Every structure is written in structure tokens, then in C-alpha cells.
Amino acid sequence: MNAPGSSLGATRWIGKRVPRKEDPRLLTGRGQFVDDVTLPGTLHVAFARSPIARGRIVSIDTAAAREMPGVHAVLTMADLAARPITMLSFFFTEAEIPITPLADGHVSYAGEPVVMVIAESRAQAEDAASLVEIAYEELDPVVTIAQAKAAGPIHPGMDSNVAAEIGDEEIEDELEDRLAGSALRLSHRIVHQRISQSPMETRGVLASRDGPEELTLWITCQSPHLVARWVSLALGLPDSAIRVIAKDVGGAFGLKNHPWKEECAVIVAALLLGKPLKWIEDRYEALTASNQAREAEMTLQAGFDGEGRLTGSHGIYDCNNGAFPQGADSNIAVHMFVWAAYKQPAYAFVSRGWYTNTNGLAAYRGPWAMESLARETLLDRAARRLGIDPVEIRRRNLVYRTDQPAVTSMGIPLEDITPGECLEKLLDHFDMAAFRREQAAARAEGRYLGVGIASYVEPTGSAGSMAPMTGELAQVRIEPTGKVTATLSTHSQGHGTATTMAQCIADRLGVRYEDVTVFEGDSTRGGFSPGAAGSRQGVIAGGAAIRCSEMLADKVRTLAAHLLNASVESVVIDHGMVRVDGAPEMARPLAEIAAIAYGEPDRLPAGFESGLEMQFRYQPPPMTFTSATHLAVVEVDAETGFVTILRWISSEDCGTVINPAVVEGQISGGLAQAIGMVLLEEMPYDARGNPQAATFKDYMLPSISDVPTFEFVHADTPSQTIGGMRGVGEGGAIIGPPTLVNAIADALTPFGELGDVVLPLTPARILDVIEQRDISGVHAPDPVTVEAVVAAPEPVVAVPVASSAGPEGDWNMVLKTPMGPQAMLAHFDVEGTALSGYLSAPEGRQDFAGGTAEGNRLRFDLMVEKPMKITLKYDLEVSGDAITGKCKMGMFGSAKVTGERA
């Protein structure tokens, strides 16, 4: 899908290690972050937060705070209620539970904002906030997943603490037979600790009301366009009334997809007061009050035949959603991709997210990463049990190019993944036999070396299957001076998009990289996209920039051919010069052609639009896979349990590499985070729901001494997208943890099996294996058992007599999809045992026929085209005026259905 070779000049920019355009500004302190922006009359915000994890608010006394110097307002949720706002998920869906910017009547986690103080300075606001007196009736909190399963619901109106669920509890007979008949049936458990995203720049917002209902936000975020759309929907304002600006952002990692409680409180208060309001989160707040990530448990079973080939698998996944997640999540992606790189004949699962009295869940780089951690560590355990080399068990099960096209056991089509090829390319750069000899010699000396290997595929560049995940728009213009400006809907939090997009444009337009300037970071420029989410910008925005530049180059060649009396095919643009093949004397600077395009309309060809500008919105394939295999070598100190990483090799296939330095920087950043998750980072809570890591003294991030120099092997197989790119932003954080865990487990084999993985692998936990006793306390029974919290009894209401009507007629139903609850109207017609009808939602109506009605049991199939082609299989039961059941959603598993007669 590239332009013909004759139209491209000799100078190519894609694939070069050019200096990043952003670096001179950022490295000399000339970046513009939210706190660098000041407006006349700006007031500052601080919050009085809950010191308890769960309780009822008895009273709030703000009198002393209001009397403090510089204080302009002290607001509670009762005040903010004058300007309603609907808190939405990333998918723009409403939550099942009430979520408000400030606590409303009760608190559900320690650190929840209860009162906001607005003053002339941050110091004055904080001093006043400390004088707010709030009386609570404290209740016993639900802190852990285990407690959430046993306790009554923490949110009024809920039947349980299940925030989201998908899949089937029972293993079907066919899969059970597969597992039972396997030569090895292995069950492997992973306990992943809670982590803080810890971006260098904390959350922050400056909100200014510019008219009756016009709003400008400077906010640290991942996409100004997505935030503008989110705020528009949340406030019920037109998109055009909201402008979002985010020039520079110091890291996000999923935390900053969209505003949450504090940002929304500031936005609403700015609308109410009509004054610019700024809130910048301090580091204590960032660690103890921001949404967090990753706390989950997974038990993965897999069967193997005598030669180590997979026979079937089943997964049970539970994740802690906290009190107010940015989207209730059971993490369906874990199951979609757990065996995507492998020849796994059968897989089933059940997955749940649980509400607890802890900070809410937010995304973190590769939110589904548990799949690789569970699978790859299980494979190494299986290899040791079967007496097979870890490399060999992967060779026997990985998908290679020769195995494709294929479809995974979850129904995902595979056409061009290369995990097997990445493995082979990596092994070309690492002598495994030599390492095993070195390892044996080291053990004889009392030194314990280990090697770990892991393979995976990552879904990148997703578009068209979820509301926010759209294509990307590129607008490229050659100015009358010959310089090039481009406006894109990309957004960088360190991604280098101003550099990589300029390379794509310069490459296809035939101009110097230095002559291209890319503008982003303003919702009024360009068109909608979710920005940095899902490893997508290089894939989709890169494709948009390439195709848009090719279209603009065609326009330049058409004009030049007219002006120079040459054929279009003979015109070449190279290094900012327009040349004619075979006629060097006819070469003209691009600036000369551009000046004519803008200023001399009489010289233009008939029907030629004046100026040199073009735009293109690229809608790529629904998903583009990246493949990789990583290898790490470690040494474990048997006396202290400390781990030293000696070597790390990444063999990654990210397709066409736009800029190797940017690609390697993205992988390295993810790997640094992986090392932190495996060895250091943890956000623990005590039994009363108090976060126990309030500073970086307690929450340990990896330092430069913990991170090795990474080696890179690029296995570049162009994808099916324009330009051939594949995403790379999240890969290091996904594949890094199992690679490192496997290396540590390999080093520990003289002492025994690492067994179930409980992260982080602190020195004490490693010494558990070395000394074969419980030093860490991880394996000891919990010293404190919190009693199940029982919700306050509801008033006794007379139960109406169940309706004797059958299933015919209209029903208000809710399908709990992985993207959030979907409300719909169902209509059923029954003739004998034949069932027909339709389902209607805001997205449209779908008719069905050929279903069956056996008594009160209704079964029917629905073929849908969007967000992707899939057959929905409904199995429902009517009981009076209530309807319940499930819907099998293909690769997404089974989802719960509830409803009542309309």
C-alpha cells in the first residue's frame, strides 16, 4: 500500500534514529505542564479527605475553614449538586453504582475527597482544609478479594460485591475430559500485588469558565480529544463548548485516560463559581488517593500430553476493583489473549471484578498483562515437571507463520503473528548451551544463575470495536514557504509522536525532517481519537500520516507536472526539491511550487484547488498484533535473596520501525516498570483499609542500578496496515514480568520449586524457597480475620404476587458486557415452542427468529455486525415479572442478563 517507488525521493526518514523534536525544549526546562499555566485570578483547590475506609458521614463543620485568610469557598457535594455531572467509564458508559466527585453521605475508601477548599494559594487551601471537621460513623471495611467474596455489598442497592463478571463457573464436560485425560494436569496460581502508576507528573487540572457554558481545561491526560468528549457527555454540553489543552504530560500509563473524582470536582466548581480553579495533586495524594492498578489473582489450569503439547486449559480470574473503578472490570482481555500465541485447542474461564473499600481501579500499561505472567510461568513449571527444556516446550506449542491462517480457541483470527520466529531469532543471539555450562560451573562455586524466557502476542492499534477506539486523523499542509505543518490527534506523554509522525510525513512527502512541524495536544486541532491508549499511535496515526502525505505529494506532482510541462510520473520530490527525471535543469524548490499554489491561481491547472493541504482519516484493521520473545539472565544471592539482572534481550516484531530509538525507549520503559512490579513495588493496605505506602520511601520504584542495559533484536515483519507498523508501547510491561520470574525460578531450582507466584518477589520471599521455611509470612495464615460486613437491613416491603403472564411482550433487560452494562428493550413472540422477536437499544434494533421457548426458558441467537461480527447466544429464564440468564458472546465469554417486564 506504499506509493510507487518512482514518486519517492532517495532520502528516506522511516527507520532512522533521528533526534527527537521534543527533547531540546524538555531538556532545557521549556516544557509546558499543567502547573506551568497560570491565568489571571486563578484560585487553588485542596481537599479534606476521609481518614477511614468505610463509614457514614454524620456531620461536616466548615465554619473554621471559611474564616481562614484567602479562602473563597468551601464546598461539599451538596453544593456541587447544583451542576450535575455523570461519571462515565473509558467506554462512555454509566456505572451501576452512584459515583460523585465528592463523597455524598458516606465514604468508601481512605482518601476519598469529602470537602473542597478554594483559596488564593495552595498553602492557604491546605491550611483551611485541615480545619474542616467531619464526624463519621465508622463501619468495618472490606479490603481484600477474599473478604469481598464473603461480605455483604459495600454499595447500597447491590446484591453482592461483584462489580463485573463474565464466563462460566463450571468446566464443561468436553474440556474436563481433555484435562483429566492429559499426561500432566497442572494448576498454577498467581497473586499480583496492587501497584501505583506513579507518573512523574501527578494528576492536575486548571479549569476556566469562558462563557455561560464554555469551558477550557488544561489537564494532564492521554488525549485532549477524548477528555473533551468525556466531559461533554458527563456535563451534557456540546463538544464545541469545551476546549482541552495538554501540551506536555509527564507520564500517564492509563491513569489519565479521563478525569475522575477530584478533576470533576474542580470542573464543576469552576462552572459554578465562574473563576479559574487549579488543583495539582501532591505526591502523597498520588500514592494514597489516586486510582491504582493490577491487584488480581489468577488460577490457570493446563493439560499437556506426554510430549508437552497443550491439550486444554481453564482460567479463574479475580481482580480488586476498589470502591469506584474508572470502569467496573472483570478483565476479559486476560482470557482473550492468554493463549493467543499458542496452539491451545480448548479454553474456558470465569472472571470477576470485586468492589472493596480501597482506591478504585484504573488502567496500567498492558492492563491484561496477567495472562502472560500466568501462562509463561506455568509453561516453565510444566517443562520442569515433564523434563522438557523451557525453549522446547514453547517450540512445540507456539504459533509460527507456517501455522497461519488460524483461529484461536477464543475465536480470534491469526494471520501474521510471529512469536515462534521471535523465539528463533532471539536464540540466534544467545548461546543457551554455553549458558547452561556456565550455570553449572557457577553452582559448583555456590553462585546461582538463572535464565528466563517468555513469548507473547500483544493486541495493538485497536479501532472500530469500542466507542472511544476510533481511527486517526492527519492534516498535512505545505506552507507557502515550503515548510510543512501537520496537525494530528496523537498525544505524547513521552511517546515521541512529534518526532515519529514528522518522520512519516517527511518520508512520504520528500522533504527534510527538520522542515516538518507536528502540532498536537489541543482538542480544537485535528479530529477525535483516544490518543495514547492501547499501543495504537504508531500504527494508526502513522498510517494516517503516511497516506495523507502520499495524497499531498500527488497534488504537488500534479501541479509541478503542469508548471514544468512534464508527465506526473516523471516528477520526484526529494529533500524539498521538485525534480523531473532526466532533466536536472528543471529542478525547482518546493517553496517555489508552493508559492504558486497559494498566490498565483491563474497558473494552476483547470479544476485544481489552490493551496497545498490534505487530510485523511485512517480506519485500520480491527486489531494488529505485535509478537515478542524476551530472555533474562539473573544471579540470586543465596545469603540475602537479592536478585541481580545480568542480561536482558528483547526480540520484538513491531513491523516497520519508524524510529529505532523511540521503539527501544518504549520497550525499555515498560521493562523498567516490569522489574519494579516483580521485585519492588507494592501498595499494601492494612486491615482497616489504610494504604501503607505513602511516600517513595515505602513505595519502592526501580532505580537506575536495578535496570540493566537492554539488548534489542528487531524481527520486523510489516503488518497489514498502511506503513506496516505494529504497536510497541505496552509490550515491555506485559512480557517483562514472566521473563524475570522465570529467570529467578530457574536460578532457584537447586533449592526447590518457586511454585505459586506471589508478587513482589522480595528477598524474604526468595529466601522462603532457599531456606525452605516461611520467612516472608506469605505462606502463613492471615493473623486477622475481618468479619463479613452485613449491609443495613432494608425496610420490609410486601412482595407482589408473581405475574402469571408468559414471556410474551416487552422486557427491560441489561446485558453486563465487558465494556459496561448495556440496557435494551426485548420483545418476545411465542407460537408453541417457536420464539421470535427483537432487541432494541440506542444503537439500533435487531430482529431474530428461530429461537425456542420451553416453558419459561427462552433460547435464541442474534447475529451482530458491530462492534465486530459475532453470534450472541441467549439463554434466559422467566420467573413472573423477572428475567435472568446469560448470553454467550463468542470470544468474550458468557455475560449475565437481568431484567423485568416493561
Helix content: 10-25%
Q: Which whole number gives the mean pLDDT?
A: 93
- β-strand number: 37
Give the helix tally: 20
What is the radius of gyration?
A: 29 Å
Helices and strands: which structural class? alpha+beta
Head-to-tail CA distance between termini:
52 Å
> Which strand order does the major sheet show?
30-31-32-33-34-35-36-37
Low-confidence stretches are 1-6, 781-802
Shape: globular
Characterize the main sheet.
8 strands, antiparallel, barrel
Question: Which strand-content bin applies to the residues?
Answer: 25-35%
Structure characterization notes:
The protein is an alpha+beta fold and 902 residues long. The strands form 8 sheets. The protein has an 8-stranded antiparallel barrel. It has a 7-stranded mixed beta sheet with strand order 3-5-1-12-9-10-11, with helices on both faces. The chain has a 6-stranded mixed beta sheet with strand order 7-15-14-13-8-29, sandwiched between helices. Strand 30 (809-817) and strand 31 form a beta hairpin. The model is unreliable at 1-6 and 781-802 (pLDDT under 50).
